Amino acid sequence: xxxxxxxxxxxxxxxxxxxxxxxxxxxxxxxxxxxxxxxxxxxxxxxxxxxxxxxxxxxxxxxxxxxxxxxxxxxxxxxxxxxxxxxxxxxxxxxxxxxxxxxxxxxxxxxxxxxxxxxxxxxxxxxxxxxxxxxxxxxxxxxxxxxxxxxxxxxxxxxxxxxxxxxxxxxxxxxxxxxxxxxxxxxxxxxxxxxxxxxxxxxxxxxxxxxxxxxxxxxxxxxxxxxxxxxxxxxxxxxxxxxxxxxxxxxxxxxxxxxxxxxxxxxxxxxxxxxxxxxxxxxxxxxxxxxxxxxxxxxxxxxxxxxxxxxxxxxxxxxxxxxxxxxxxxxxxxxxxxxxxxxxxxxxxxxxxxxxxxxxxxxxxxxxxxxxxxxxxxxxxxxxx
Length: 385
Prior knowledge:
The protein has 385 residues and is α/β, with parallel strands linked by helices. 45% of the residues lie in helices and 11% in strands. The protein folds into 2 domains: 11-177, 3-Layer(aba) Sandwich (Rossmann fold); 182-383, Dehydroquinate synthase-like - alpha domain (Dehydroquinate synthase-like, alpha domain, Up-down Bundle). The strands form 2 sheets. It has a 6-stranded parallel β-sheet with strand order 1-8-5-4-2-3, with helices on both faces. A two-stranded antiparallel sheet has the order 6-7. The longest helix has 23 residues, at 209-231. The two termini are 37 Å apart.
């Protein structure tokens, strides 16, 4: 197992009715800005619950944060924060709202061009406003980590950044708040969580036994409860397990002391930006091809994955690996997330553009061994057709 430092200060308030406890987590007298997305929290009553919980606080709202939060929109919110001397942010929504709020928290206190925060992957920032979250869409894990992904439309860039100051102070996870989500968003969230886990698990062995078994437990839970969430949309236990899976999938626990990949995510980001596909859909497209083309480099962990996750124990090594990758593809398809570019009316003509975008963003040595080059990505994307 590799050396590691694990730090996660986020407090989790999990379960039914926990929004009412938010006031106990925000300093008295704070001027609070509630951030959210397209307005579903108004329709489903979540915003009313938040406002009721924060009676007596000086509250403001900023809505309209996009599913792939843009620098342009977020800077408008930064201006609101600065002009009104906001001292606490509360993100109410899914990963995009939380990611956007992380950028707002950092940019509001940043002196200089705020895009520097993102283009240096968080290196240049020093501090951020305190913030909490009320999660309504389990997927990104942003509610319990220090990372975010932001899109700059003017620069045609979608980039990740992270900093220890960007851990939420607290996050409220009430599974009942996911009941009204469309089936497509739940399915995307299952895929997103699944691929988060795989990016930290399907690399190469370092004898991180606990990390492997944590990861396998998360994958098995997603395989079991992902389809049930679509079939039984108000099954509390199913939604609770999926919500907690999403959080544990990217809070640092399973990545401690083991190699990490993230090539699928970096390619997926470019697909989202260029083709306006949902993040989860891009991961479903890229992952099976990524595993197939890189199977020999990931051989030992893929064989472990085949046995422990999919119970595949017969056939030679290559047959078992191929079967595990096919099972992965079938799982995504079973929850109505297509896994081929052609399913989204996309063809080979987009591949050179994606490859050039990766080069432009410095994504030329991806993967756990830094050997996923733009040339290899081209081969992988052809396998996605």
